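Q: Here's a chain of 169 amino acids. Please give me its 3D structure as tokens.
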Amino acid sequence: MSDRSRPAAPGISVGLRPERPADRPFLLGLYTAHRWEELRPVPWTDAQKRAFLAMQFDAQAKHYRATYDAARWDLITFRGRRAGRLYVCPLPGQLRIVDISVLPEFRRIGIGTYLLRDLIAEAEAEQLRLGVHVDQQNPALRWYERLGFTVVEVRTPYLYMERPAGFRG
């Protein structure tokens, strides 16, 4: 699969490309950036925190690959720079967002919304529900709600949300 760069809005260039083994250091850094703040109160050294996060990252990657073997494992690019990851898996009757993560310096400029609107259009074209698990404390929860997702199931600390096929909101 080739790079699928396209303009998100005037002046914004967002693309997806398949993940490669050489992307592991970037992906670990992305994972660390998302989890670092929650480890702030833990009385470990930075080295201990990094080792813990590397172990968690590897466990998550193994779980994702085992659970979602048909997924698309893409890196998000912005103006040619690696900005995040988007993992999506087709399942019976739905398209599942396994993970969408963007580095802090690339947030709030429309990348996630652009990609999510693309996924909404893809799901609608196939008449599929679009699903995602969201941590109950994740600020993105309100973002999903604004885009038509509703809570279908609670599995603390996560909510499973779906945007029904054919939703018009």
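Q: Can you summarize the key feature?
A: The chain has four helices and eight strands.
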